[in-house]
Amino acid sequence: MTQMTMAKALNEGLRRALADDDRVLIMGEDIGKLGGVFRITDGLQGEFGAQRVVDTPLAESGIVGTAVGLAYRGFRPVVEIQFDGFVYPAFDQIVSQVAKLHYRTGGKVKMPITIRIPWAGGVGAAEHHSESPEAYFVHTSGLRVVAVSNPQDAYTVLRQAIASDDPVVFFEPKRLYHAKGEVDLDAPLADAAPMGLARVVREGSDVTILTYGSQVQTALDAATAAEDDGTSIEVIDLRSISPVDYRTVTASVRKTGRVVVTHEAAREAGVGAELVASVTERCFNYLEAAPVRVTGHNIPYPPAKLEKFHLPDLDRILDAVDRVMDRPNSLTGIVAEGGVR
Amino acid sequence: MTQMTMAKALNEGLRRALADDDRVLIMGEDIGKLGGVFRITDGLQGEFGAQRVVDTPLAESGIVGTAVGLAYRGFRPVVEIQFDGFVYPAFDQIVSQVAKLHYRTGGKVKMPITIRIPWAGGVGAAEHHSESPEAYFVHTSGLRVVAVSNPQDAYTVLRQAIASDDPVVFFEPKRLYHAKGEVDLDAPLADAAPMGLARVVREGSDVTILTYGSQVQTALDAATAAEDDGTSIEVIDLRSISPVDYRTVTASVRKTGRVVVTHEAAREAGVGAELVASVTERCFNYLEAAPVRVTGHNIPYPPAKLEKFHLPDLDRILDAVDRVMDRPNSLTGIVAEGGVR
Amino acid sequence: MVHTLTPAADIGVDIDDVARLLTADGERIADSVLDPWIADVDAAQLRELHREMAVLRRIDAEGVALQRQGQLGLWAPCTGQEAVQIGTTRGLRNDDFVFPSYREIGVVYARGGRPSDFVLSWRGEAHSTLEPDTLHSGVPQIIIGAQTLHAVGYAMGIQRDGTDQVSATYFGDGASSQGDVNEAMVFAASFGAPVVFVCSNNQYAISEPVRVQAAAPIAGRAPGYGIPSMRVDGNDILACLAAMRWAAEHARTGAGPAFIEAVTYRMGPHTTSDDPTRYRDPAELERWRARDPLTRVEAYLRAQGEFDDEFAASVQHSADDMAAQVRAAALGAVTKPPLSVFDDVYAEPHTGIAEEIVAFAAYLDGFADAEGEVAR
Amino acid sequence: MVHTLTPAADIGVDIDDVARLLTADGERIADSVLDPWIADVDAAQLRELHREMAVLRRIDAEGVALQRQGQLGLWAPCTGQEAVQIGTTRGLRNDDFVFPSYREIGVVYARGGRPSDFVLSWRGEAHSTLEPDTLHSGVPQIIIGAQTLHAVGYAMGIQRDGTDQVSATYFGDGASSQGDVNEAMVFAASFGAPVVFVCSNNQYAISEPVRVQAAAPIAGRAPGYGIPSMRVDGNDILACLAAMRWAAEHARTGAGPAFIEAVTYRMGPHTTSDDPTRYRDPAELERWRARDPLTRVEAYLRAQGEFDDEFAASVQHSADDMAAQVRAAALGAVTKPPLSVFDDVYAEPHTGIAEEIVAFAAYLDGFADAEGEVAR
Lengths: 341, 341, 376, 376
Ligand SMILES: Cc1ncc(C[n+]2csc(CCOP(=O)(O)OP(=O)(O)O)c2C)c(N)n1
Ligand SMILES: Cc1ncc(C[n+]2csc(CCOP(=O)(O)OP(=O)(O)O)c2C)c(N)n1
Ligand SMILES: [Mg+2]
Ligand SMILES: [Mg+2]
Hints:
The complex is a heterotetramer, with two copies of chain A (341 residues) and two copies of chain C (376 residues).
Chain A: E1 2-5, H1 6-20, E2 24-28, H2 44-48, E3 53-55, H3 60-72, E4 76-80, H4 91-98, H5 101-104, E5 114-119, H6 134-138, E6 144-147, H7 151-163, E7 168-173, E8 180-183, E9 199-202, E10 207-211, H8 215-228, E11 233-237, E12 240-242, H9 246-256, E13 259-266, H10 271-283, E14 292-296, H11 314-324, H12 332-337
Helix pairs in contact in A: 1-7, 3-4, 8-11
Chain C: E1 4-5, H1 43-68, H2 82-90, E2 97-99, H3 105-110, H4 115-123, H5 132-135, H6 146-161, E3 167-172, H7 179-191, E4 195-201, E5 204-205, E6 208-209, E7 229-233, H8 237-252, E8 258-263, H9 282-289, H10 293-303, H11 309-331, H12 351-365
Parallel strand pairs in C: 2-3, 3-4, 4-8, 7-8
Antiparallel strand pairs in C: 5-6
Bound molecules: thiamine diphosphate (TPP) (2 copies) and magnesium ion (2 copies).
């Protein structure tokens, strides 16, 4: 076990994947000499050469499209999209090609492509640098979508994603790049929990919070704070947001009967909508209250100085806990009046 | 009132918009001489000239991107995407520019762009020609998203979309292009129901079906069939899927207590997820059963010969009605066993 | 470099400003650049190229007929484009890898595609049936231009594997407007990837004439990216073969990508759903009919005494035989069972799909017939 | 047209293969193409151009300083690129419309941008503050290349309005790889739109040298699309001014789009978050320091006796004054209230946003302070 940042854990995960399988290669903007704008690929070009750690022209559709061609030839490309907001130019190649080629070819062509995306807000960044586009990919059949919340998962799940024969969109909360944690670099991958499994990161009996990525820590903080009021909160880190591990989720919800879902992305047709809908479908008779979503507003990501009013923080989660616990909360008067959530 | 197809109604809507406002122009592939592959723009170039009905190069990002520039200059571009599956190359311009520029400029630049998309399946088409991408746009703050189900709405809502100062993604179910209905071409636009309003297309008391686009007719057929069993179904044509008219929706759900949502798009993080989540949040105490979604599977659109096994048809809706009515249904044994929906 | 650069003259309809070896009348003319590349092609070889073009034309006719008879949902005819499809493919080695578009039936045929590969996807039985590993071909692409990047990526893979293969990608004049095609040229040039771009400029993107896409010759774009290019008569199979040999050799020997614009014509509609009379002058069609890729080869061979009735009959036989096989493949198609829609969404087990299969199977079970038989 | 086209020679670091009027040492040299376009520029005008470059450099320094002091979240320095930014903008009319990228601070400045326009967005107070209608400028674009299409669309609007304005778009060498930029050239050429493309080739896209993007001169791409282009010394304000006058006139008179590649250098880091020592040779920086766009104008004017200490002091004063205003704009910024995040998501009333505002306002009300005051 070594103490390291998530950035370092990702770097080690890539190094290991490159070392273990010579069909793995990494492509992206500025990932070579510079080691990526977040230094996730630091040192890898020096170690593995420019043929395997490839600085590409500045064109995301080109990056993903050439990765498709490399996959056709049996490579396992790991693509870095420099920031969340720059994945959209590659959307067509991802949705129409990466996600569908295995299906379109009747399984004759595999697309073991990992698309790494430094992700989401909370770091005071400029426009287009704090997007949470995960729902677009979750809605796209043929992709797997994961989000990591700690260095150990960053290391392990990244390696699992690269080893998967399916395309995986891999979200890295940039807010946590410098957060440290213990990482076991030597544990055999075969022993690790499968990529699709959720993890109960805190047990509790009153409310289940479903979340992923950097919101896991916020949810844990909320759970700690709620303890003071005597509210016992179970926090589930979904890890895989497509597919979702509903075995773990429903077990928890059947126990608590109350659900809060939180993510940074806009609420409308977000991952939270799917979680609430699925939980309601699967656990209706166990629910004591309507599941509540605590999410970014339905607005474009606001300017950095205002992002704190957009991000679902500890207080907003606690307010949601009050809602599912049928305690007085911010909407108490309002819900009664009309249709407002 | 005139009897006409939806294709003709759309054509008349465009003609009227071009005639009423000389800042309106239409752009797309093959929309000029050919009149569009579906003939929606038939005759318009002859009538209004090639400056206002513009055959563009074959590049969707280019079409939407130049529409943004035209909007900067005060035009109201109406863009035709030839088929649903070809909107993805324009995704970046839509999500990062069309949806956000009004916000990014603090309201100083308006984006009154209408993006028309011939949409969805059921017509035996080739790959990429039967996509239902609406959830991507619903999840994108800054856009309005509408879907029409009949010639009158096609005519009226299209004109409203073009007249709106906000960008509107306008879905046209290609399966209904040749379906006929009464259209009043002369009713003043000001008298029409606002674009955002849902419509109860059939009243009922036992179950509410929420839907849009071509599924409206399927839902109506299901409602008729269910009548024989003595089940009274209310069908709501949402018309606007972002924002959704929750006043109309909740009024219905509070009455029936049972909800079925249906659309062709894949279920996972689709519009149905949002509808189920919102309805559950807003009407939890009125719900007699978990809302059920009847959607396309979570798969890429299948080959034409198999599409009937993908599309949510009358039988699948009736099965869902059985589920929300707590009657024996296809999942009866299975739900008991484990986590499966 | 001269610091002020001006475009080449407008091509518009200047379809004769091309490299050519066989005129429309079947006269063999000299071209110092192209000649060396086909020096070995004798009459016997040329006859076989003619046969392949004739078979392809027959496949195309059969496809149209099958569509008219309701056996296929759609067909995208390639008649008129036989020379570029067969000629360029024959300029490649079998282990080179091609990335065609939907219209390159001739490329798939020349790679060894089975009759079913031509029709089952248009019939809607499967998205694609061909065997990429056997044919060394990607799936024919419908998303305009997307495959060009795949070809570049594949070529980058060849570089990494250190083999002397090349990849080749086919796309249309309309496709040349897509950002992906231009990104493909950027990547190819940047990495010096062994890829050949073949733009089949058939004068139309559905209804739009090429001048909507290009104010200058499409072949003129490549050099701006650092890619040498050639503009050839796409109805001249010798020129197409020579151009591909030049381009493939360029790529194969490590000199990087090359680009071919083949000037040709789509004699039929865009697809069987299209009505070209809405946008095309019949006189134009007639002008192009006079430039037919097959007749000029026949005329040339006849003049050499290398094309007799016996050979004509043999070609006819090959075409008839193929047509029968294509028809049989279409008529004999067996639609897959309902649950097959879930096949191959993922390569590895997937809990979501597993659940869906359980649920949909249970649903289908509700439709048991009188004997209790269930189709799923 | 010759049917076989070969690329122009590799540019790599051939930064001297450009059109130029003022050498790095301040010597005025002749260029028959460019000379006529700046025949009217006298010493007085050149002095003002120098002043603007000096002020811009000072804005840039102030931006960096404010970022270092924690007043701005980020800054994208433009030092080294003053000549292309000021020179080309001054080659436009005020009613022409520009579409800059994030690094074109000088374009916004030359269009009359306010001090707050330079800093408030980098401070994170607003996505953009500038007044498009007053400045005739789009918002500085961060999505690489996207603005080039906006400029083409705007130019299509100009055509429809029948005015003699032009639009101009700025983008980098890295941006030249994006599909959007190439689609922009396709559309511009197809419609003959009055738009000028200005590629500021500052040798780097963050850490990647231009050869990753381009195996041939970027200016060489445009002619392939039918667009005339020019490659100029981007550190020579006279050449930049002349090139834009040529290009704008070309566009204004209905001859269609034009393209300028300005060869320059980003003297600073990509942004204040970047560490160029990881990828850039200090010697390269020194070589470019010798090509400074300001010193050469000063040297030229001094040699003419047109630059004295009094003028230097006056420039210094202008720069100091601007720096003070920029600083004041940053320090005086007032962050908007929480509920402002909902402003302008839509132009028209929206039931969803209306509900969100009610809910979030109620939520914020829960945080009333001791006096019952609520910030929202
Ligand atoms: C991204 C995308 N946009 C639009 C279409 C619809 N479409 C199919 S074929 C076609 C024209 C293609 O023209 P060209 O590239 O010249 O090829 P050709 O059909 O002439 O062989 C269009 C617009 C598509 N398939 N994909
Ligand atoms: C679509 C997109 N991809 C990636 C980025 C990240 N990024 C910002 S600036 C930059 C380099 C741009 O280089 P260039 O076009 O040469 O402009 P310069 O910064 O040199 O002025 C990159 C990769 C982005 N902003 N947008
Ligand atoms: Mg074509
Ligand atoms: Mg640059």
